Amino acid sequence: MIGLLVPLGLLGLLALAVPIVAHLVSRRAGRVVKVGSIRWMHESPAYQSRSLKLHDLWLLLLRLAVVALLALALAGPYWRHRPAVAGTNEWVLIGPDVARDSQYRPLIDSLARVGEVHLLSPGLPHWIPGDALPASTDLPALSALPALTDYWSLLREAEQLAPPATRFSVVTSDNARYFRGERPRLKARVEWRLVSGSAAQSASIADSVKTVELYAPATRRDDARYLVAALQAAAQEAGVRVRLLRRPPSSASAPAEDASPSIWIIWLGGDPVPDGLKARVEAGATLLVDPADDSVETLESLLITGPSLPAQAHLFRRSTRTLEKSEAALWTDEYGVPVLSVTRTGAGLVYRLRIRLHPDWTDLVMTPALPRLIGSLWLGPSEGDLRVAPSQVVPALVAKDASPIESRPARPDLAFSVWLLTLLAFGLERAVSLDWFRSRA
Amino acid sequence: MSYASYRFIDPKTLAALRDLELVATSVVDGFMFGAHPSRLPGAGLEFSQYRSYQHGDDLRRIDWKLFGRSDRYFVRESQIETSVTVRLLLDATGSMAHEEEGISKFDYARFLLASLAVLAHRQGDAVGLYAMRHPAVGLVPPARHHHHIHRILRELEVLVPGEPWPDWSRLQGLLATGGRNLTILVTDLHERSTEIRSALQRIAALRDEVIVFHLIGRAELEFNYAEPTTFEELETGRRVEVDPATLKATYLAAAARDLKAIRNELEERRIGYLALPIDQPLDAALRSFLQARQRVM
Question: Measured between beta carbons, which residues in chain A are less than 8 angstroms from residue B239?
Answer without folding.
Answer: 32
